[in-house]
User: Which sequence fits this backbone?
């Protein structure tokens, strides 16, 4: 028997006792391991960014920017210390500290610092454009941090949704405005937009869901807004959330089997029947995500760009 739909979606055992034991187990065995492996990046990256800025001869930043980078460094160092000294206090406080860090300090640092401190060189190149597209846009935060600073899915869902909405509405428009003021970067933006459009349109056309016709070249700022909103939806929200959900679902199934084998199972009958996803189901989900990505591209293009004679059939 499969998991109940609600439990499968929210990833929570019916038994509070079993849920508490799993949360502590997940923190001690997986979350702390991820924290230790990413220790150098998480604790060192803010300091490297701060040092590079201080050494620039043209000047530094504002007091608020230095404050946010310092806070990011302090809280990431604290989370790393918890991983290397995993006592009861660390197991208890690791989740709220990580939620606070991912929900406030990290996005505030991106919003206050990244547009000013990470600009494309003159002249730009594909390498510098890709770096800016992934890092300065904040996409690196929404795509990597859910995996590099993981929390339980029941906490990840509202947390990441709130960060996603904040970045799409507050950061992407500012980022695209900055790009639009760099004429030497326009060709990179439009080439990227055309490549993604071609992939989405060809995929849907092959499934006979869309009729592809000629279209005019969009304005750079509109193309940028469309492309990065789509990237945030798929690469920054859907994919990392599914990966987190899939990994935790599998770990819960393994945890239930281990508890039953040890004779220490304290959950309900529904909890006892918790099942891992077979590889075929994961593959099917991946195909659905690909279809969702193409449909999402077409579904959002009309909001940003005049579609002309392109239409669903």
Assistant:
């Amino acid at each position: 028997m499969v998991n109940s739909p609600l439990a499968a979606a929210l990833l929570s055992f019916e038994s509070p006792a079993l849920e508490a034991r799993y949360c502590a187990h997940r923190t001690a065995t997986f979350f702390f391991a991820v924290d230790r492996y990413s220790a150098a990046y998480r604790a060192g990256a803010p300091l490297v960014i701060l040092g590079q800025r201080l050494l620039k001869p043209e000047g530094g930043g504002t007091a608020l920017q230095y404050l946010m980078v310092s806070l990011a460094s302090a809280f990431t160092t604290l989370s790393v210390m918890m991983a290397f000294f995993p006592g009861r206090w660390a197991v208890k406080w690791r989740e709220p500290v990580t939620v606070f860090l991912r929900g406030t300090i990290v996005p505030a640092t991106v919003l206050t610092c990244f547009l000013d401190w990470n600009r494309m060189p003159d002249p730009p190149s594909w390498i510098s454009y890709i770096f800016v597209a992934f890092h300065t846009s904040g996409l690196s935060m929404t795509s990597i941090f859910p995996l590099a600073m993981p929390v339980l899915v029941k906490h990840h869902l509202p947390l990441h949704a709130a960060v996603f909405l904040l970045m799409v509405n507050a950061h992407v428009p500012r980022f695209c405005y900055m790009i639009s003021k760099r004429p030497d970067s326009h060709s990179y933006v439009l080439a990227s937009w055309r490549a993604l459009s071609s992939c989405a349109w060809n995929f849907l056309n092959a499934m006979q869901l869309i009729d592809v016709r000629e279209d005019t070249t969009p304005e750079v700022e509109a193309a940028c807004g469309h492309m990065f909103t789509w990237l945030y939806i798929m690469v920054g929200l859907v994919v990392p959330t599914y990966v987190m959900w899939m990994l935790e679902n599998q770990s819960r199934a393994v945890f239930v089997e281990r508890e039953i084998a040890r004779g220490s199972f304290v959950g309900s009958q529904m909890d006892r029947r918790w099942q891992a996803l077979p590889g075929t189901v994961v593959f099917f989900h991946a195909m659905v995500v690909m279809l969702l990505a193409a449909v999402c591209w077409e579904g959002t293009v009309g909001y940003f760009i005049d579609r002309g004679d392109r239409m669903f059939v």
Summary: The mean pLDDT is 82.
